[in-house]
Structure formats: C-alpha cells, structure tokens
Amino acid sequence: MVNGSRRARRRILHTSDLHLVSPGDKPSRSLTSLVDLAIRAEVDLLVFAGDLFDHNRVDDELVIFAASQLRRVPVNAVILPGNHDCLMSDSVYEREILWQDCANVRVLRDPEGERLDFPYLGISLWGKPIMSYDDDVLPLAGAPQPPQNGHWNIAVAHGFYASGESPSFRSYHITEQEIVTSGYDYIALGHIASFRCVCEEPVKAYYSGAPTISGTVSIVELSEETGVQVTPYSLSDYGM
Fold first, then answer.
1. Which CATH superfamily is domain 10-238 in?
2. pTM: predicted TM-score of the whole model, two decimal places
C-alpha cells in the first residue's frame, strides 16, 4: 500500500507449457479451453510462463490459430518466451504480421528482463525471456526489487526450482533465495508439468502445471483482505 491506499482486488489466470504443435491437437484444444475459462472467470490478466509453443518451427497456421484465440480474451495476455519457443531471430514471436491484430498480447522481450505496467489494473509485472537454446539461463537472476507504486507486483519465470544451496543442474535454476528476497507478491513459474507450490511466505510462488499433462491452470486471486490465493482449475470442465 502507498499513502494508505488499498490495492483493488484482481484475478490472474497463470498457465505455462502448452507446447502447441499443430491446430486441432490436444495442446490447441487446451488453449481454447483456457481462453474459455479466462472469459468465464472474468480474469483481469492472462500470464503464460513460457513454452506456449513447442518449438519455433511451427507452421504459420498454428501461430494464426493461437493469435485468434488470444484475441478472444478481453484483457491483456502476457507471454514469456521459454526454452522451447525462445526469442531468437526465427522465433514465432518475430512473425509480426501474424500478431499484428493482437493489440492485447504483450511479449516480454528485453534480454535483461523488463517490467510491464498496467496502471488501469494496478498491476506491474517483471520477467526475463529466454533468448537462446544455450545452457547459461538464470530466469530470476538480476530481478529488480518491485517498485513502490501501489501496484500488485508479479514476476514470471521459466525454469527449475532449486531448494538447496547448490543446484544439481547447470542452467534454468531458480533458487529459494531469489524467491524469498524478491519482494514480489506472486511469482508465476513455468517449466514443470504439475501444479506445485514452491513458496508460501514471504512470497507466493507456484507452478501452474502443463494443461495437456496435469490438466490444470491456476487462477490467482490478489486481495488485500485475504492475501494471495492460488487455485488450480481443471480444464476438463471447460471442454478439453
């Protein structure tokens, strides 16, 4: 809170790892279902925490399909490029003509990480896209402390949570220390297929699950009265 003001209650749909391959397949049906859920649940923001697409070589037809689905959502959709759909020169997100009618879609692009502010929602979001297929990616490294702007502050990251001091893998690790000292209200994680909480206090950090494997997405309720509440929703109830 700033100057005693209270932040408005907000609702976010957090998902990741759809791994779209071709129109009409199970991942594509999952996208349609989660868009249906986002509309029905009247969410304020849609967040994709990496790997919306399975790879950067997918046909234009699939990109057109994904863009058409996201246009159905009457709110902003934020996409973090993951390790499968990383932001290289041949990225699906560089096919600008296919995304030109998606004014509501925001792709995180700054290699050092960037913050998107949504003043009308009272939400600020930070994320660092994966830029290549190399093995030296640290998704939360260098994350700035959130601004004291009276917003709900969200971070989004694609990688493995490492609870120990020395991660057993060389890349994509997100440490416990990075999360608990981040200062964010919520960290939306991607890269793991199951719904999972990795931190409750002082920062909520969750994996949403991969819709085509876990069958779930997460709806995050942000409220001054009840705090941050994260609930998994089954897409089987929405036509998948």
1. Metallo-dependent phosphatases (3.60.21.10)
2. 0.94
